[in-house]
Each structure stands twice: as structure tokens, then as C-alpha cells.
């Protein structure tokens, strides 16, 4: 009985060694390679406004700026576009005997630019403002200054492009000012420059009015002309 038991154990051990040897000597019998391909062209479709408080929000509010409810965006088509610019509302204010600083009512006014060219060539956003005038043009807020300051640049989290640059701007005449500038290989994708502040009292967008210039019961309006070019500074 002892001899048979030992023989059985030895047989099991031998089979195990034979299996390991067979696997170790197995040869590769076939190989293959496959390729994966894609090519891009510049997108030309309209880019809708994104949420200036959270660019990753898939369902931004409508209207995007409650203080500017009739503004759906520019609707500009192309691969380098201004998609949205807020209309700034200062509301009805009291006249005063001295210089006054009035704050915007918009809580999150912003400007949005998209670069879908896929070249990394850079771009430049400038703006210039007209005087604050009455509808007929006979009344002017002489010496008034419109200021945008403390803007914050935002984009979607997954956008790996380096950010463009933004600047504080004061419109005191008709000169053009650089608002955003993307040097080579920066500013790709969609970017917003948002001037967030307190609702109805946003000190990051303000209007300076000199004494003796404002007439009561007159609607004063200024227009900002925005221009986006493919020539970075």
C-alpha cells in the first residue's frame, strides 16, 4: 500500500511540471497592426453663451443675464467669434451736486469669445464706446467715464488651452481699448471675461458722472463697439 501511494503522488507532480514546460515554450503564431485616423476642419456654427458663473453647466439659465433678458447672444457664425456681450443697465439714479459713481445692476455681466480655428494663431478683442447721449443726441453726459474692472477669465474645466489675458478698461473717449488678448497658442476654445459683483450694485462695472451734466427725465445711452481680430498683440 505504501508503494502505490508514493507512485500516485509522483505521477501528479510529473504532470504539473510537464504543463509548465509546455506553456513556457509556446511560440507566437501571428501578429497584426491597426491604425486609427481623424482629421479636423474649423467649426463655423454659432456658439451659444455659456454660464458665466459655471462654464461646465450644461443647462445655463435662460435668459443668461436676467438684467438683460432680451439678449440671446450675437448669433455670430464662424471659427473666431464674439458670442455674447452684456448690455449694461444702471437704472434710474438721483442727480447730485458732486461727482457721482454709479454701479451696474447686472450681477454677472460678461463678454464671450470662441476660437475654433484650430491653428493657435491668437486673437485680439478691442472695444470703444460712444458718449452717453439722449435719443436725439442733444443731451450729453460730458466727461462721463465707463469702467470695467476685476474681470475674471473662465472656460470649461476640460479646456487645456492656456488662458488669454484680460485688462481693466475705462472708456473716457472714443479710443479703442484692448479687453482681451490671446497670444500664440493661447485662448483656444470658448472664454468668458466676467465682471461679477453684487446684484443691483456691481462696483466692478461703474459709471462716473461729473456734476452739472445730467438732466432729469432723459434716457442716456452709450454704445460699445466690440471688434475681434486674428492679430494678437
List key phrases describing it.
Immunoglobulin-like; WxL_dom; WxL domain-containing protein; four-stranded antiparallel β-sheet; 27% strand; 1 helix; single chain; 12 strands; 10% helix; disordered N terminus; 233 residues; mainly beta
Topology:
Layout: H1 2-24, E1 80-85, E2 100-104, E3 110-115, E4 123-129, E5 145-148, E6 152-154, E7 165-166, E8 169-171, E9 177-182, E10 189-194, E11 202-209, E12 224-229
Antiparallel strand pairs: 1-3, 2-11, 3-10, 4-9, 4-12, 5-8, 5-11, 6-10, 7-9
Structure characterization notes:
The chain has 233 residues and is mainly beta. It has one helix and twelve strands, in the order αββββββββββββ. The protein has a domain at 80-229: Immunoglobulin-like (Sandwich). The chain has one helix spanning 2-24; strands spanning 80-85, 100-104, 110-115, 123-129, 145-148, 152-154, 165-166, 169-171, 177-182, 189-194, 202-209, 224-229. Helices cover 10% and strands 27% of the residues. The strands form three sheets. A four-stranded antiparallel sheet has the order 1-3-10-6, with no helix packed on it. The protein has a four-stranded antiparallel sheet with strand order 2-11-5-8, with no helix packed on it. Mean pLDDT is 91; it is low at 1-18.
Amino acid at each position: 500500500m505504501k508503494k502505490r501511494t508514493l507512485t500516485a503522488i509522483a505521477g501528479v507532480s510529473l504532470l504539473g511540471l510537464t504543463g509548465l514546460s509546455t506553456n513556457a515554450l509556446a511560440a507566437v503564431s501571428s501578429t497584426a497592426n491597426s491604425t486609427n485616423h481623424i482629421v479636423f476642419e474649423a467649426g463655423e456654427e454659432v456658439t451659444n453663451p455659456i454660464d458665466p458663473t459655471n462654464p461646465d453647466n450644461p443647462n445655463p439659465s435662460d435668459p443668461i443675464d436676467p438684467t438683460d433678458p432680451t439678449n440671446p447672444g450675437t448669433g455670430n457664425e464662424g471659427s473666431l467669434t464674439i458670442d455674447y456681450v452684456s448690455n449694461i443697465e444702471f437704472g434710474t439714479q438721483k442727480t447730485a451736486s458732486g461727482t457721482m459713481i454709479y454701479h451696474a445692476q447686472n450681477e454677472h455681466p460678461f463678454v464671450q469669445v470662441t476660437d475654433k480655428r484650430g491653428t493657435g494663431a491668437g486673437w485680439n478683442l478691442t472695444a470703444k464706446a460712444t458718449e452717453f447721449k439722449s435719443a436725439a443726441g442733444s443731451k450729453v453726459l460730458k466727461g462721463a467715464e465707463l469702467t470695467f474692472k476685476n474681470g475674471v477669465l473662465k472656460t470649461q474645466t476640460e479646456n487645456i488651452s492656456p488662458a488669454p489675458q484680460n485688462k481693466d478698461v475705462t472708456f473716457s473717449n472714443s479710443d479703442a481699448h484692448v479687453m482681451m488678448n490671446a497670444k500664440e497658442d493661447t485662448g483656444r476654445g470658448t472664454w468668458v471675461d466676467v465682471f461679477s459683483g453684487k446684484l443691483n450694485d456691481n462696483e466692478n462695472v461703474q459709471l462716473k458722472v461729473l456734476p452739472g451734466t445730467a438732466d432729469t427725465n432723459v434716457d442716456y445711452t452709450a454704445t460699445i463697439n466690440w471688434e475681434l481680430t486674428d492679430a494678437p498683440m
